[in-house]
Write the structure tokens for this entry.
Amino acid sequence: MAEKEVTFEEALERARRMSERYVQRGPYRFFPLGEIVENIQHGLAKNLVNHGRLYCP
């Protein structure tokens, strides 16, 4: 069965949800500079689109 291709917008939403859940579950906080967090989430989304996984950028 072929995997469904995801758009960058769908991938970005998944990356945001995943990172938010990760922070909520543990004793973690997002890095204080939102721009850095956004860059990481964009990298995760890009990897999902290109490789099919939310690989760490």
Remarks:
- The chain has one domain: 8-51.
- The mean pLDDT is 92.
- The CA atoms of residues 11 and 45 lie 5 Å apart.
- DSSP finds two helices and no strands in the chain.
